[in-house]
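New to this. Please check this protein:
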Amino acid sequence: MTSPKNAVSLLTAAALVVAPVGGVAATYDTGYADDGGDKGKDEDGSLAIPDSAEQAIEWIQSGKLTKEAALDKAWADGKIADVDIDNLRQYLKDYLAAVAEAEAQAEAEAARQAEREAAEKAAAEAEAKAEAEREAAEKAEAEAQKKAEAEKAAAEEAAKAEAAGADDDVEADDAAGTDASDSTGAGDGAASDEASGPATDGDAAGADKPPVPDATIPEPPKGEEEKPAEPVADIEVPDITGLSADEARQVLEEKGLKLSDGEPAHAFHDTVKRGGVISQSPAAGAKVAAGTAVDILEISDGPAQFAMPDLAGLTVDAAMEKIQEVGLTVSDEAPEHEYSDTVAKGDVIRTTPAAGEVIPAGSAVRFVISDGAKPADPKPPVTPEKPDPAPQPTPTPEPEQPAKPSEPVDTDNPVDSGQQKPKPDGAGGNTQGSHAAAVNKGNAQTPLKQVAVKVPSISFTHMDN
């Protein structure tokens, strides 16, 4: 990482001062205010004034010159009169700003490094804890298996001892029966001898009859009471690790076993999903009798840290079910709402924490829910246009009647020539309104030719003179 003291090495004095001191800025002093500098003060406490532009640049880079007043004083005293004072002031400002920025970046990087180290430490501790839990579970499983094997061996020994005891009882019973038979046979023989011996006169005279031997057959000695047979351990315990409690119960019942009612312990686990069995007793593969109860020793709470699942596009109910499955909770804060052209109304747009972010188990999740597409701005009502008026029919002009070719045109006739002769009483001539026109020509009568004349309300009447 670049030290704040050297962070402004790219700012050269050559760009800020004029030619007479152009080459000075190429050499940088590594001294800094905290390396013995006095922050722009002389030994007597007065403001330190550089004697030249080269010294001013050196003091700026070492942190000794931090005040524009020192530059102004040197300029006023003529010590740095050969440079552009405005450029030198700007150089001081840029240098100080670059140093401040470098220090801020260094602090930010240190903070990020500390966060990374803390996260790595937490992850290592979680891994160590998970490893310890795995070892404890394996140890408990091994002990449970060892216990099951010992119980199995003890049951086999008891069964063998019981079988041997039963054989001894049978042999004793047989021996007792043989002794009783021998004793009964001897008594019967003696009685028979006495009964078959020579009778004397006294005996014949009234001697008592010989006693009748006891014919009761002694019962053989009873052995131990018969014990019920030990159940046969012929069912192999199935592996229920990784299953939920309900799934484990179903698998055990299918094998003729049952799930214990004991309360299992809970632990984080990196590979067994939340709610899955971590360890069991008896262990998988052990031989047990039908009806044996299998204990769930540990139930997984899922990994201690995991990536936030992507819930975008799910309904709120489906998203809540999903986060509960992985061991998260719903935030107490009200969900946000936004318009979306791609996510249906009521579905999840995104979450906080964001999808893929590594979070600890039990973290609270806040939803951003879609309100659907943003409604368009309302348009003003459209005024309907008035229809064009219907075209009026064009009147049909009356046809003109052509003159008959058999009637010659009399050019002397005022009518035929298109003129009207006025009557003595003023009839004829120019007419207005509706008037009758008469045409006179000597004693002759000339028929009036009908001519279409475009004069309003004028009719022609042929009259004799």
